[in-house]
Structure formats: C-alpha cells, structure tokens
Amino acid sequence: MVFIVVNRRTTDIPNVNKISQLFKLLGNPKRLQLLYLLIQHSMSVSEISMKLNWEQSGVSHQLQLLRKYNLVQQRREGKTVIYHLEDPQVMTLIADVLSHAEKII
C-alpha cells in the first residue's frame, strides 16, 4: 500500500500533474477496456480490434497514447506487433479500482 504524505502547511501533492494525467488516461472507458484486455493476454492490433469490436485505426491510436506514457509495451513477432502490459503497478491499480468500484457502485 502506498501512502501520500501531504505537507501540513500546504495542500501540495508531489507530482500532482503526473497523477492527474494517469487518472485521465485510465478514466477513458475505451482505454480502460483495452488495458484490462491486455492484462489478460498479449495481443496484436487486429486481435484487440476483433475482441473489442473497434476499428483498427482506433485501437492503434489508443495504443500509441498508452505507449507514450509507458503503460503498454510492444514486441515484434515476425511482421506482427504484439502489445502487452507488464507493469505490475498498473495491473494492481486497475484491479484495485475494479474491486473498489464493485463495492461502491
């Protein structure tokens, strides 16, 4: 468990902009679906597109954004690019949020 220490004299949270950006990325339902899918299994753009019933261009756009912020990685298998989520902290964060959402919603 991570605890944030807040200075008692101010309300500044260290790295608040980075934290806000992460929540914006995770707050998009499509990106969250995509990340949840990649937690379960590494996939190509075409596989993701079929599973989520999205256009491949939309999948590619979301993956590009997630790669920019190091939430997903890619590896090449021949001509196919496989995307995967290997960051255990992101996996844990998503699992914790899902668990919490089930309790409060």
TrEMBL record:
Gene Ontology molecular function, alphabetical: DNA binding; DNA-binding transcription factor activity
InterPro entries referenced in this protein's UniProt entry, alphabetically: ArsR-like_HTH, HTH_ArsR_DNA-bd_dom, Metal_resp_trans_reg, WH-like_DNA-bd_sf, WH_DNA-bd_sf
Residue ranges constituting the HTH arsR-type domain according to the UniProt record: 11-105
The protein's name in its UniProt record: Winged helix-turn-helix transcriptional regulator
Pfam families noted in UniProt: HTH_5 (PF01022)
Keyword annotations of the record: DNA-binding, Transcription, Transcription regulation
SUPFAM superfamilies in the record: Winged helix' DNA-binding domain
Organism: Limosilactobacillus albertensis
